[in-house]
Design goal:
By secondary structure, this protein is mostly helical. 76% of the residues lie in helices and 0% in strands.
């Protein structure tokens, strides 16, 4: 009987088919893209780009010039780790009331973003002069 039940469960799909689960995933990705764009925009504006918004959009997915590829990879791993911890927080607080879940996921996301921004700031190559 257990085999039939598990086959029926697999045929219908798992618990992740709920629209709110996908909304959480999309929300985390949009949040990280927005923060990434804001950090990129700030960096381009600081460097005096003529059109910082366009430069930030182009630089969002491109590799940094003069930056060590290993450092770039580590930066993306810090970002991915923050996103994974945020997703794990959302998963672990599924049974909690919605305001508690939103606040806890938001707090963990903000901490992950600050950790990523701090890592990028500390490892950014500086011009001497």
């Amino acid at each position: 009987m257990g085999l039939v039940t598990s086959e029926l469960l697999l045929a219908r799909g798992g618990d992740s088919d709920d629209a709110s689960d996908w909304a959480w995933i999309a929300g985390v990705l949009v949040l990280y893209l927005a923060i990434g764009y804001a950090l990129e925009y700030r960096a381009k504006r600081r460097k005096g780009a003529a059109r910082p918004a366009r430069a930030a959009m182009e630089g969002l997915f491109s590799e940094r010039e003069g930056r060590d590829p290993g450092q770039y990879f580590l930066s993306r791993m810090v970002m991915l780790g923050g996103a994974l911890v945020t997703g794990l927080t959302a998963f672990l607080t599924q049974g909690a009331p919605t305001p508690v879940q939103v606040l806890s996921v938001g707090a963990v996301a903000v901490l992950g973003i600050f950790a990523w921004a701090y890592f990028d700031h500390r490892t950014e190559p500086r011009e001497e002069g």
